[in-house]
Amino acid sequence: MPNGPGDSMSAAATPQQQKASKLHIGWIMPPFVRELPVDATDDEAAATQLYELVTGLMPNHPPELQYRFALGLSAQLELMVEANVIYAGLCPLEFEGDPGLSTIVVSQVEHDGENEAAVLQATRETLERKYPDDEWDSVELNCGPALLRSGISSFVISAEWSASGREIPVTQSQMQAYIPLPDTSEMLIFEITSQAGEHWGLHAELFREILNTVDWGTGQEIADYRAMRSSPVSASAEPDEAVQKALYWHSSRLLDAAAVRGRVGGASPVATTTCTDCWAKGLRTPCSAKHLWSIDFVPVVELSGAISRVVEKFSVNGWEAEAGEAEETMRAWEVDASGKRVGHSFRISVDMGTGRIEAEVTSPCSRSLHSAPTDSAFG
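The chain above was modelled as a monomer; its predicted structure follows.
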C-alpha cells in the first residue's frame, strides 16, 4: 500500500482548493495499469470499481484477502482527494516469474513561484531539507523542465487493514517528478512507489517513459487541432494576399542582393507551415508561410560571389546574417533594436557544380504584427 500521497507533496507546495486549469493535461498510461476511482461520483460507485479492480488483479487470492486489500485502497482514496490527486493507478509488473506492484499517483497543486525555474528551485530546496539523503535530478522532459526525486518512504499498515491482523512497518522505493505547468501557478506531481526490491529499476524505467508522454494544450490549441483534423482543406489554406506580397517583396530584395543572371523559378503557390515556436507548444495549424524559389544556369563568375554579396546586404539595417553548416549557405533574420529575431527570415544556398541558387523566404508567425511591403519581381 502506498503512503499517504500528501506526505511528501505538501512539502513542496501547499495544496489549495482545486481550481480549473486553463490547460488540458494528458499523458499515456500502459494498458495494464489499473486505474483507481479517485474521481468516483459517490461511495457506492467507488466501492463497485474497487471490487472489480481487486478481483481482476487478485483472481486467485481468498475473498478475505481481496476484501482487506480493497478496504486499504478505499482508505487511501480519501487521502488522495485531500492531496488534490487527479489520477491514481496500480501497476503490476512481472520479471522472470516474480510479480511486483507499484502505485502511480498524479497530483495537481498550486504554487506561488514567479516562473518555472523559480518554483523548481524552491521545491528542491524545500525537499532537500526534508529528505537530505535522497537523489535529485533536473531533467528536460518532452513537455518541459522538471525535477526528479528518488528515495525511500516508510509507513505503517494498521492492524485493521493487514492480512495478519497486526501492524506492519513498510519501507518502499519512491520516485517523484515535479512538473510546472507553463504560464500558470500550477504544478503536476507524478509519483511512483513500490516494494519491488531488486526489480525497482523496471518500475522506475516505466515511470520515466510515462513522464515523457505528458502533454498539455489550451482550449484554443485543442480547437485548432480538431479543426485541422476535421477540415484538412482549411488547415492548408493559402495565406492571405498581404502575407504573399510581403514574401514576394523580400524574395525580390534577396534576388537583387545576389546580383546574378539565370532562369528564375518559384512560380508555384506560397506554402503554409507552422513556425517552430507554435509547433513546440503543440499547435499544428499553419501560422506562417514560405516562398521557395531558385535560379538555374547562373554563370560561375557571378555564382562565386553571390553569398558574400547577400551577406554584405543583409548584415546591416535591421538584419542579422550567419553562415550555414554547409559551405556556400547562409541564413538571415529581421531583428529589432534589441537584437531579437522578428519578422521575416530566409535561407540561401549555391551549388557551384550545377550553377544553381536555391532560396527559402519565411514569413513571421501570423500572431505577430507586421506590415506588408509592395512592389516585387514575384507578384
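The chain has two domains: 6-220, 231-362.
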